[in-house]
Design goal:
14% strand, two-stranded antiparallel sheet, 14 helices, alpha/beta, 2 domains, Nucleotidyltransferase, domain 5
């Protein structure tokens, strides 16, 4: 018998809870449990951000859950995120909204950039997520690398620093040598014109850096810097210093040929880190390091550091960021790295159970 296709929606009330509508085996169930534990551990940090009097704000836990959905589902803007949150029951369940509860305005995210969505809180959120990966991460063997993050600024905005603000000559840069010491972007002054290898187009960019452990490829540290030729090595030293300052014993770190410089290798060794860096001609790595079996193993694990970069740019929001300024880009990069770990940890727990 053919079913009826009447468009009249006569039902006014729903007697099925949101919890019952979400399949028991949905991937977000494990992520939601993990996120709740992480946010519960950050209660003291949240309390310090808000006054004890005044009108109640949108709960910071809900804001962060909503932003995680934006990363997980490649939602291109906060305005579109709130549109989805209004009618998508899965999104409502994950954030913690009732089925009839009104969603907030998208401008709430912009209002919370300085207080809640900043570098300091993103690093704390990342650290709490990392604590949930206890037992899943190697504490001895790591790989470091950097990736180019295209800034939200066009080539025509990259103009001479001493040029007037007027429209004269705007965008006509053919045949003109352009360098970061003489030019700057009027749209995003902290972005730098940079390319990672010869033959590529130079773009206004930042550099994102990750330190990945070699067991399951989880991100152990993350940060963003301005793009220049030394930024990758300098960021690696900062992340390795933070990793080793509270521990004893040596660790290893793999890296590509760009890290095979004498100053980087010598500084890393002073930190108690064995550099398993890919060798280049006349580099700092010799057979005293490369003859050990662990060196070959570390080089074979270098692909693990590329997996987060691929996910962050294909699924996440980092192919071309829509925020301006190093502080905001760093917040987005570190927060997205935490989102990557949140997706991976429940799956790894199931595999190891």
């Amino acid at each position: 018998m053919r079913g009826d296709d009447q468009q009249l929606q006569t039902g006014m009330f729903s007697y099925v809870a949101l919890e019952e509508r979400i399949p028991a085996d949905h991937p977000l169930r494990g992520v939601r449990k993990l996120v709740d534990v992480v946010l519960a551990g950050m209660t003291k940090e949240f309390d310090g951000l808000y006054s004890e009097v005044g009108r109640p704000s949108i709960a910071p836990e809900r804001l962060l859950r909503a932003l995680l959905l934006q990363v997980f589902y490649s939602v291109r803007s906060e305005r579109l995120l709130m549109e989805q949150l209004n009618y998508n029951l899965l999104f409502r369940w994950f954030v913690g909204l009732d089925i009839d509860e009104e969603v907030w305005n998208h401008a709430v995210f912009s209002k919370n950039r300085d207080r809640l969505l900043n570098q300091d809180l993103s690093q704390k959120f990342f650290a709490h997520v990392k604590e949930q990966a206890a037992g899943l991460m190697s504490d001895e063997h790591f790989t470091v690398d950097g990736t180019l993050i295209e800034a939200w600024a066009g080539q025509k905005s990259f103009r001479r620093k001493d040029e007037d603000e007027g429209p004269k000559g705007r965008g006509d840069f053919h045949g003109e040598p352009r360098r970061n010491d003489t030019h700057a972007s009027r749209t995003d002054p902290e972005a730098r014109l940079y390319k990672k290898s010869a033959g590529q187009e130079a773009k206004l960019s930042y550099l994102g850096h990750t330190l990945v452990e070699n067991r399951n490829g989880l991100i152990a540290a993350a940060m963003t810097t301005q793009a220049d030729g030394r930024a990758e090595r300098d960021a690696a030293l900062l992340m390795l210093h933070e990793l080793t300052r509270r521990r004893r014993g040596r660790i290893t770190t793999g890296a590509d040929k760009a890290y095979d410089t004498r100053d980087f290798v010598s500084t890393v060794r002073e930190l108690g880190v064995t550099p398993h860096v890919a060798r280049r001609q006349n580099g700092a790595i010799d057979e005293r390091t490369s003859r050990h079996p662990g060196y070959s193993v570390s080089l074979s694990k270098r692909w693990l550091v590329e997996k987060p970069f691929g996910w962050l740019k294909q699924i996440g929001p980092l192919r071309k960021v829509k925020l301006r300024g190093l502080a905001k880009v760093d917040w987005l990069f570190v927060f997205s790295c935490a989102a990557f770990n949140l997706i991976r940890i429940p799956k790894l727990r199931e595999q190891s159970a």
